[in-house]
Amino acid sequence: MTPPDVKALIGEVVARHGITLRPDDPVFALVTVNELVLEQTMTELIGRTQQLTNEFDQAAARLQARAGSVLATEVRKAGAEIRQALRQDITFTGTRPRQSAEEIPRAQSGPVSYWWLSVGLIAGLTLFVIGILVGRAWR
User: Fold this and answer.
1) For residue 15, what are the domain limits?
2) Is residue 53 included in any domain, yes or no?
3) Is residue 97 assigned to a domain?
4) Cα-to-chain-centroid distance, residue 77
5) Which pTM was predicted?
6) Residue 2 to residue 79: CA distance in whole angstroms
């Protein structure tokens, strides 16, 4: 730390308070004591800040490791559950599959039937409108 400019300090005290000081005035001893106390306090504060920063970094690293291991465990568990569900869907229960070959067309026939019914209604309505238009045109 650089020592304070004594002449600048004396000039500032004279300007603000109207008190004249000399460079060997005892008040400058107090300024030096304050400066030393401030330096010591700052050194302790910097040391404590560095210590807390290191502790925080270590805690963050531990948290990251824990989170990674928990996430890996959950991913493995989810993967095992998915594999088990797929195996259950693929394998047969006893001698009969979960969904027989006869049930598949029946399960799919509902949406297909609705689609064809919709196409038929639209085609019929279109023909009806064309018939009306042709009838009016021949009149």
Assistant:
1) 6-91
2) yes
3) no
4) 23
5) 0.45
6) 65
Q: Is residue 106 included in any domain, yes or no?
A: no
* Overall residue count recorded for the chain in this entry: 139
Q: Is residue 103 part of a domain?
A: no
Task: Tell me how far apart the alpha carbons of residues 35 and 43 are, in angstroms, rounded to a whole number.
Answer: 12
Which amino acid type is present at position 139? R
Structural domain count, the chain: 1
- Is residue 34 within 8 Å of residue 41, measured between CB atoms? no
Each residue's pLDDT expressed in tens, for the chain with a length of 139 residues:
567 788 888 888 889 988 888 888 888 888 889 999 999 999 999 999 999 999 999 998 898 888 888 888 888 888 888 888 777 777 655 445 555 555 655 555 667 777 888 889 999 999 999 988 888 887 6
Letter for the amino acid at 62?
R
Question: Residue 8 corresponds to which amino acid?
Answer: A
Nearest to 32 by CA among 61, 3, 5: 3
